[in-house]
């Protein structure tokens, strides 16, 4: 398991978005830390899985608020990617509610998916809107 390390390449130059991205990865790293322990309680893992999902949804809603506020031209495509992430996240949390599911493995799967998805999403999709948001006064 490799933790997420924030580097300059992920920065959009928009403090509210950059801070949310960083916090998202801090939560993912908390899951990695938890998985290093052998005596995790099921409810603790379920709670942090939900925290990751809830924070991701909060972050996506922040971006979408600005898409609407500024009438971002590629909003539909960007929101399709967000919708896919939301669907996958809901599937994961449904699995976490299944008492037969191995939460240790599931937590690792979720964290790997979420960090890989978001890191690529930042570098590819979010970098496209950054200049547009900045032109509308977000710094």
Describe the 3D structure.
- This protein is mainly alpha-helical and 139 residues long.
- It has a single domain (13-135), classed as Four Helix Bundle (Hemerythrin (Met), subunit A), CATH 1.20.120.50.
- The chain is 76% helix and 0% strand.
- The protein contains 4 helices and no strands.
- It has helices at 15-36, 42-70, 75-96, 103-135.
- The radius of gyration is 16 Å and the shape is elongated.
Show the helix and strand layout.
Layout: H1 15-36, H2 42-70, H3 75-96, H4 103-135
Helix pairs in contact: 1-2, 1-4, 2-3, 2-4, 3-4
Give a summary of the structure in a few sentences.
The chain has 139 residues and is mainly alpha-helical. The protein has helices spanning 15-36, 42-70, 75-96, 103-135. The protein has one domain: Hemerythrin-like (Four Helix Bundle (Hemerythrin (Met), subunit A)).
CATH topology, which one? Four Helix Bundle (Hemerythrin (Met), subunit A)
What kind of assembly state do the chains in view correspond to?
A: single chain
Give the name of the CATH architecture. Up-down Bundle
Order of helices and strands: HHHH
